[in-house]
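Budget justification aside, the reviewers requested a transparent look at the raw inputs and outputs of the sequence design task funded under Objective 1. We therefore reproduce one unedited record. The lines immediately below are the structure tokens for a 271-residue chain.
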């Protein structure tokens, strides 16, 4: 069902890889709600994914960009405003990567070059995106910027590895830049802490199936899906949330406020 919540709004969506990704679902929902946007991803991710199918489906153009490159980001912002015909109303940062996770390096035995690379891609890129938008005065007043995060930024999940540190830094950047973007430009900046979701990236984490099963048993409403996250993101892009900023917002079925569930108690008291 569409409510035209984003009619006339223009944006940039980072990170759509395939139909399992939250960014992909968000792009579909934004399109249904009347928004127009440019799709972007790193060139290597574009070769692996199906982003061209999404662009065709939503009538969008694709601008390849390495989100860690200031030059690429400047080109992305300039071209997006040219293509879309004006300033940007919304941005989704859906980017995360850990080389240590991919290569199975334990948290107590990290390769620091890999750690730095993952930190740059997963967290510092968010600052780079916002700094580029801020300096170019590219965001409309009451615009909205959203990044995706995970509960491991607050609580320890052993196999989430250095991605937990990346997400903590990402959330801090949202608060810090959110202050200046709000005060100077009337732009909102928030993060959504999503349930573990079976995306292509998420499934690369060791024991991910256990993450999902445990969270499902712990959450009164069950795990939020990628589509649930897309719907929540649409509300944050809309004018209905004009004064929500600098927040880390949980979309996790109640997991973050549940100490223990009856299902988990019963699982560990089985005879």
């Amino acid at each position: 069902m569409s409510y035209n919540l984003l009619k006339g709004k223009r944006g940039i969506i980072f990170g759509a890889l395939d139909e399992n990704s939250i960014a992909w679902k968000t792009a579909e929902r934004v399109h249904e709600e009347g928004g127009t946007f440019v799709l972007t991803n790193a060139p290597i991710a574009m070769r692996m994914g199906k982003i061209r199918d999404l662009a065709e489906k939503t009538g969008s153009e694709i601008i390849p960009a390495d989100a860690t490159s200031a030059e690429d980001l400047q080109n992305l912002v300039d071209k997006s405003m040219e293509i879309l015909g004006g300033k940007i109303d919304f941005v989704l940062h859906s980017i995360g990567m850990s080389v240590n996770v991919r290569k199975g390096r334990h948290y107590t035995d990290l390769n620091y070059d890999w750690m730095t690379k993952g930190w740059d891609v997963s967290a510092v890129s968010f600052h780079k995106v916002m700094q580029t938008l801020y300096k170019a005065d590219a965001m409309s007043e009451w615009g909205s910027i959203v990044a995706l995060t995970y509960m491991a930024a607050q609580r320890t999940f052993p196999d989430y590895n250095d991605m937990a540190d990346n997400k903590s830094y990402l959330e801090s950047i949202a608060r810090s830049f959110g202050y200046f973007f709000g005060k100077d430009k009337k732009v909102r900046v928030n993060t959504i802490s999503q349930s573990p979701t079976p995306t292509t990236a998420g499934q690369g984490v060791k024991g991910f199936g256990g993450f999902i099963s445990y969270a499902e048993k712990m959450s009164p409403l069950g795990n939020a899906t990628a589509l649930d996250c897309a719907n929540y993101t649409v509300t944050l892009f809309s004018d209905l949330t004009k004064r929500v900023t600098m927040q880390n917002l949980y979309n996790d079925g109640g997991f973050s406020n549940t100490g223990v569930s009856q299902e988990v108690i019963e699982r560990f008291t089985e005879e």
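The CA atoms of residues 52 and 62 lie 8 Å apart. The mean pLDDT is 95. Computational costs for records of this kind are itemized in the attached budget.
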